[in-house]
UniProtKB/TrEMBL annotation:
Protein name as catalogued: Iron-containing alcohol dehydrogenase
Domain Alcohol dehydrogenase iron-type/glycerol dehydrogenase GldA: start-end pairs: 10-181
CDD domains, per the entry: BDH
Gene Ontology cellular component list: cytosol
Species of provenance: Olsenella porci
Taxonomy, superkingdom: Bacteria
GO molecular function: alcohol dehydrogenase (NADP+) activity; butanol dehydrogenase (NAD+) activity; metal ion binding; methylglyoxal reductase (NADPH) (acetol producing) activity
Amino acid sequence: MLGDFTYHNPCRVHFGPNALDELPSELAEYGPKVLLTYGGGSIKRNGVYDKVITALEAAGKTVFEVPGVMSNPTADKLREGAKVARENDVDLILAVGGGSTIDYAKGVSVSAWTEGDPWEHLYLHMEEPTGKVIPVGDVLTMSGTGSEMNAGSVITNHEEGLKIGHVFGPNVIPRFAIVNPEVTFTVPDYQMRAGIYDAFNHICEQYFSGTDDNTSDYIAEGLMRSLVHASRIAVKDPTDYEARSNISWVCTWALNTLIACGKSTDWEVHMLGQAIGAVTDATHGMTLSAVSLPYYRLVMPYGVEKFARFARAVWNVDDSGKSEREVAEAGLEAMSEWMDQIGVVKSARELGLTEENIPDAVKATFILDGGYHKLTTEEVEQIFHESL
Ligand code: NZQ
Ligand code: ZN
């Protein structure tokens, strides 16, 4: 059943090997001052930086730079960028990178003109920005998060042991996104696999909730099938454009909120993964893969029907002679085998979670109520132990 909803995504996506050709026409829509943000230097090594700078110079822009955006961007880094953006009254923030750089750009966009400490107001207390929101555009270099076309921004505060994502309003969604799957060829193998799993889990988070019949779940199943198929090819040949381009497009659609329209959603795997991230600073997608199976095995009995549907629709599980519960279990088994095929982390110990820091991770976990079963604190602890 689809109830009332408004779907509005103002992001213009330019996709394909020639997507960057569209950057000049996008830049023409904004004033002269551009804040360029990027990560640890991959864009300088693969030539993307030079191409972007050439376009900015040709457009006559004055460019301010905030480089060094780390994976899992921090509250301190956010404060630094907000200061630069405000002091120079920039007209556009151009993020060139993966989810971390784009999340960061959105964070700077809402923080620059909001009074007070941005971490405290916009993340810890989840308040809305009180000042103007600076437009953001992005040149995506790694697929996974969907940040290129959504309003989410995740910031980590190591001092407080918290990693918090705020999904802002549509005015924080990037105005444009340049997605060239060829640029993702240089993404390190580990990050490529993490990005694939991240997107898969975004779809799961929106799928494993509710018992009604709605179009969003059918779209979700199609996206999962495409991702599973393409990922098996990409891990063998990372330069297979067909596979990488399908992965990139699935990643974008997995989290631009289309498949959440008119339905309830879960997001508890992300809460568990973010808690591991807060404690260990591990790669986001791998934190999700480490907790997924213990979590889904725990909640499956409360949502057998949907898990059985997942088994049939995504994994083609042969259901003859099986009970619904057995079909559901076979679906999770098929998912587990696929996780092995694409080589994602299944042990949180590999990421730095230990018996000693599990209590910190439990403390950092937000318990949500959207899935088939609301976790107790004891169950959160149990999942972390089972994930080791
Ligand atoms: O920093 P550089 O040098 O650019 O290197 C990056 C980084 O080391 C590298 N990389 C990216 N593109 C590359 C490349 N290396 C070579 N060639 C390229 N083309 O890859 C590494 C990882 O990049 P990062 O941006 O950190 O990864 P990802 O895209 O997975 O982003 C992770 C962040 O996004 C948040 C996560 O929590 C995490 O903080 N998320 C954001 C979401 C959103 N906005 O909706 C949702 C997600 O669930 C997620 O929470
Ligand atoms: Zn994610």
